[in-house]
Structure formats: structure tokens, C-alpha cells
Amino acid sequence: MEIRPTTDQDLDVFVDTLHAAFGRFPETPTDGRGVWWSALEMDRNLLAMTADGRPVGTAGAYSFELTLPGEMLVPAAGVSFVGVLPSHRRQGVLSAMMRHQLTELRARGEFLSALLSTEAPIYGRFGYGPATYTQRLTVQRHQAAFAPPRACGTADAPAAGSVEVLRRAECGEILEEIYDRYRRAQPGALSRPRRWWSLGAGQPPVAAAPRYVAVHRDDDGCPDGYASYSLGEPGTLTVDETIATDDAVFTALARFVLGHDLVTQVVFKHVPPEHPLRWQLADFRAGQVSDHTDWLWVRLLDVPRALTARSWFTDGELVLDVDDPFLGEHGRYLLTVRDSKADCVPTDREPDLSLDVSDLGSIYLGGTAPSTLVRAGHIRSHRPSAATLADALFRAERSPHCLHWF
């Protein structure tokens, strides 16, 4: 078997092989709209070929920026398009592609990668760990009254400004600009390259599918938030995503969609697990949570570079013993944090925590507490206070969240 990089001439073969791996047929774009694979970066994709030249597997990556705690922006490979033909599964094709890809990412100088996992058991063995989470929130409109604010200046107080309803086709540049401001301040968020918007590659509202968009503007008329939504049957308003530069703007947009006429319920598809919206409703049970799930999975390719790239909010010192069984690597590192900055160097000191590189990926953005993984038997704590210190060190200024689909 040969694993080789693709060129522009391989586009049709790559797309057809990927669809065959999942038992699907390529869709036909209509009305000039792009399809989800239109933003492929062919110089970042791989094809697995049999000895007689037949394609049997695919793997690819996008070039993104990932926002780390402390609003630090770093390059990240967004791994996608991973598939193996049913006739060649459980023959080592996937493992060979993933190993080849990780080696290639390192050769490019990248120190972390991320993906969305279609099946949770698959990618842990390749060193990826779930790092952000999301959930669906459904609110019955007759229960959608907001409680009066209990404190001055809280986010549930009415935001200054106004809401304007536009069609998706009218406001592409506005959405792009608001999302870019949002993702630069939100840990766990990924960039959306301009070509994604121009090609309509992805899911709504990146895709040019018919949608209404509630755009919030501040008192100066500057757009600072939006909610992309559509109405379906029976009486359900579904919000693709709500993007806001602060909590007050999110609340204003939530009030708007929850007040929509001829609607019996509103479904917010992507809400961070710790979002305050449920607490803002007069009836706490009015917001029904479902589909709480992992979203972004993270894999560290260079532990010292990754740990020194993010900001930190507590001073401290930990020795991390990190095992990477998929790549056959093992390292012990002294992590020292002072004044929001970290130093991470190899050490021979006794470890405070022993963990798999996939578990390090899970705690990296602050979305999973190290103590949770200690209790789960994933991380071994070598002294009683180590997990408590690790919780304090790895926390983020706000819960990481990613809603970009790729």
C-alpha cells in the first residue's frame, strides 16, 4: 500500500473515494451554491492506494487558527475527510494514514491538530482527546419569559442597540466580520477562512442556504452579534448558531428569537454547556438540554511548544509524564507557570501526573478538569495535591467552545 499526497488533478478521485467510504453519493450543487468540499486544500490531503493503483482511503486537513486560553491565536491543522473503503477496513489502512499525516504535520512545523469525531472510540487511539463540548437547548415559547435581573449590570439586562432581520444572501460580509471578532476572544474557537464564506463551504450560515439572520447592532450602528435561523414544522424555529461579542448581545438575540410569532418552540443547536441562558429564564426547566456531546478533539504534536503557546491564570509547577503510544514516544516535562507565561522543559524529576497524550489534549483548552480524568482512571496523580493544582493551572478564563463544522 502507498500513501501519497494529492494534487488538484486528484480532486474527483479524492471526493469519490471519500463518499464511497461512507456509502454516499456526491451531491450536486444548485443555484451556484458551493458544496462542503469546495474549500479542500489539495496539498494537505492524502490518498491510500493499493499496489495496483486503486484508491482505498482518504485523509485531509484544513489550515485554521485556534484560539487558546488568553486569546492566543495559533495555527492548527483541522483534520477531516478521513475514510476507508468498507472492503479495506481493519487492515491497517487508517492507522497508516493517521501516522503518515501526523508525521507530515510535524514536518510542516505544526504543533497541534484538531478534528470532529464521527465515532468517539476511533481517534483516542491516535492521540486525540475531546476538548470542547456543546449541547442543544430547546425552549417552549409559552415558557420563554425572562426573569428580572437581580443585579445591576448583569448580562440579562437589556443590551443597548437594535436588531435587524436580513436574509443570509444580504449579509455575508457582516457575518464574516462578527464571527472573526468573536472567535478571536473565544477559547476553543476556530477561524473561518475567507474562501469558506465566499464558496459557501460548510453548514449554515457559512453555506448559502436560505436563512434569516437577526443582526444585532450597538448604539453606534456597528454589528456585534447575529443569530442565523429558519422556521420548520411544526412551529419550530431552529437557530444554527448565535454569535455575540458579549453576553448582553447574546441575551438580546435570544430574546428576539424567543419572541418570534407563530412559533411554539425555539431550538438553539449549539450552546456551551455552562451558558447562562437557562438561568435567565423565569422557569429554569423551560430550557431543555439534549444532545450534550463532544465537539472539538485536540492532539498535541509538540508538548513543550503547545504548553508554552497558551496563557495561564495561576502560578505553579507540575511535572507531567506524557505517554504517546501511537507514535511510540514518551516524555517527562517540568511545566513552570509564572505571570501568565509557561516554561516547559524535559526533566528527570519524579512526576506529579502521568497521562496519555490524548488526555493532555482533553485538558489543554481548559474544557476538561484534570481531576475528572484522575477520578476516571485516565490520569495517575502521584501526590494528593497534584490534581487540584492541575485544575487551577489548566483552567481557562471562560469555557472553551467551538461551533465551526469542518
From TrEMBL:
Annotated binding of acetyl-CoA, by residue: V82, G83, V84, R90, Q91, G92, V93, L94, S95, T118, E119
SUPFAM superfamilies for the chain: Acyl-CoA N-acyltransferases (Nat), SCP-like
CDD domains (UniProt xref): NAT_SF
GO biological process: aminoglycoside antibiotic catabolic process
UniProt domain N-acetyltransferase: residue ranges: 1-193
Gene3D superfamilies for this protein: 3.40.630.30, SCP2 sterol-binding domain (3.30.1050.10)
Pfam families: Acetyltransf_17, Acetyltransf_9, SCP2_2
Gene Ontology molecular functions: aminoglycoside N-acetyltransferase activity
Active site per UniProt: Y123 (proton donor), F406 (proton acceptor)
Taxonomy, superkingdom: Bacteria
This protein's UniProt keywords: Acyltransferase, Transferase
Matching NCBIfam families: PRK01346.1-4 (NF002367)
Matches recorded under PANTHER family: N-ACETYLTRANSFERASE EIS
Self-association and partners: Homohexamer; trimer of dimers.
Family statement: Belongs to the acetyltransferase Eis family.
Name the record gives this protein: Predicted acetyltransferase
